[in-house]
Amino acid sequence: MPDRNTVHATLGSAMTDISRRHFLNRVGIGMASAAAFGATSSAAAKSAGGSVEPTLQGPYLDLRKPEDNMTAYARLQGDLDESKTKYGWYKGMVSAVMPDRKVTDLFVMEGFSCARLLPKKDAPGYRKVLREVGFYREQRFGRSGKIMNTWKNPLTKERVRVVPIANDPFNFDISTTFPEPPNYGGLNQGNFPKIPFRLPWEAAIYDSNVRLDTHIHLYYPNALDPEKWPRESSGKMNRVSEFFLYNIDLADLQNPGLTSCPYRGSWSRITPWLPWMLMGQTPGHIVYQCFMGDVQSLDALPEDLVAAAEAIDPKYLEAPTEDYGPSLSSLENYAREQKPAPID
């Protein structure tokens, strides 16, 4: 997943709106959230059996508190049991957006991640350590086909070599404050204040489900310098946004017996042209629209997907057991691992 990932905020940085996969959300929602939480709490009552009905305030986690947001979010992103792996999965359409023409569906993206939570030694919280892969499938009228090794670009009529996503690692902190955004090996830098970790949990409960909406917006120098990578680079800067919508059973969220919390939802990404498409600085960009969720094991995923990951390296079938780096996205890894395409 993109390389996955998983708070919508504006902190005044010229380089970054704030943070990365799976944890950056709205700030400045304090008064509205307090009112919503209060309404949710007042609607809760004891059931006929005498047990307390779950709300956003308990009985296990009070999601007005940063430390309980940390625990709730950690259970979405991993497993509090360090010996266990959390498997994430996503699949959806990748489309091209260009000026003066309709949006064009290109191919289907499918991938998975293997994550582990390592308790932090110097402060409350966890270090999420993760490997992830993503593969591009043929598509026809929205129906997905086989994983592609080459692809004929309908925008240029050129056949190109497809480069899958294989990120090892992509790690980040989950603590009582919002984390700093990734620096991608020093490309994305800035000064970021410490803000209490209160996520925008949706207070309206539908069918016993609670919702969470997290965003990240980044603008930082492109590792693919257009002077060296004229066919691969979209320009001097990368503008990337990701959007995560989680749908979670409230009973699971408030169940202290669950060290990991199941979820379903969607993941969307706006990004420059994929470098292997060889679009250069052609005006336009890519949009991903994917379903996402977690699975108990890789046995639940398509056999060809797991086999393709194993063919790259068997390590992608397992979560890391220690923290290391640097954490890079597929764009930075492309610059490190590939060579510029020849100019005709």
Describe the structure in your own words.
This protein has 344 residues and is an alpha+beta fold. It is built from five helices and 13 strands. It has helices at 30-43, 66-77, 250-253, 303-312, 330-337; strands spanning 16-18, 86-97, 104-119, 126-140, 143-147, 150-152, 159-161, 165-167, 172-174, 209-221, 237-249, 264-271, 285-295. The strands form two sheets. Strands 1, 2, 3, 4, 5, 8, 9, 10, 11, 12 and 13 form an eleven-stranded antiparallel sheet that branches. The two termini are 34 Å apart.
SSE map:
Elements: E1 16-18, H1 30-43, H2 66-77, E2 86-97, E3 104-119, E4 126-140, E5 143-147, E6 150-152, E7 159-161, E8 165-167, E9 172-174, E10 209-221, E11 237-249, H3 250-253, E12 264-271, E13 285-295, H4 303-312, H5 330-337
Antiparallel strand pairs: 1-10, 2-3, 2-13, 3-4, 4-5, 4-8, 4-9, 6-7, 10-11, 11-12, 12-13
Sheet/helix structural class: alpha+beta
**Over the alpha carbons, how many angstroms does the gyration radius reach?**
21 Å
Number of domains: 1
The biggest beta sheet reads:
11 strands, antiparallel
Q: Count up the helices.
A: 5
Query: Average pLDDT value?
Result: 87
Beta content: 25-35%
Overall geometry: globular
Percent helix among the residues? Answer: 10-25%
**How many strands appear in the DSSP assignment?**
13
Low-confidence spans: 3-49
Straight-line distance between termini: 34 Å
Order of helices and strands: EHHEEEEEEEEEEHEEHH
What can be said about this structure in brief?
The protein has 5 helices and 13 strands. The protein has helices spanning 30-43, 66-77, 250-253, 303-312, 330-337, and strands spanning 16-18, 86-97, 104-119, 126-140, 143-147, 150-152, 159-161, 165-167, 172-174, 209-221, 237-249, 264-271, 285-295.
